Amino acid sequence: MNSITSEEVRSWIVSITSAVIVAALIRYFIVELYIVDGPSMQPTLQDGERLVVNKFIYHVRTPLKGEVIIFRYPRDHSRDFIKRVIAVGGDTIEIKDGHVYVNDAIVNEDYISEKTRTEYPKQTVPEGTLFVCGDNRRNSLDSRFPDVGFVPLELVKGKAALIFWPLDDVAALP
Fold this sequence. Notes:
By secondary structure, the protein is an alpha+beta fold. The protein has one domain: Umud Fragment, subunit A. It contains two helices and twelve strands. The strands form two sheets. Strands 1, 2, 3, 4, 9, 10, 11 and 12 form an eight-stranded antiparallel beta sheet that branches. The protein has a four-stranded antiparallel beta sheet with strand order 7-6-5-8, with no helix packed on it. The mean pLDDT is 90.
């Protein structure tokens, strides 16, 4: 029977340490797993669904209108929110008569199940921020309300890329 040499032990330690470091770097810079908590993104996302979040993409570009993002809640950075980007810095945003207007054009929101009931006066989204809304406008704390307001880009964690659980719902997000 062969005994384990110190060289083999060292090799195992280096391999395991390297794997842990690579996994940590991937989680910190590239992807993160996220659990949808609550109904604010229905019908697009359901409470309890699990997502893969692309954290790398916003190191090379800023979020685009229509993307679903994860961000730290401005009033409590220990909480994450998931919402859809409606307008970006420099855009004008207005909500009236059940429609969302960005730069004076009605936004085609085929991802919501009912019109937006709240009104929002016309404002320009400040540079370096986003205007975000949940797809379930009747049950979403989002940029329409002062507790969230315009979301600074530095609070954005990543783009929701893939639903991976439950298996019946596996799908890439647009």
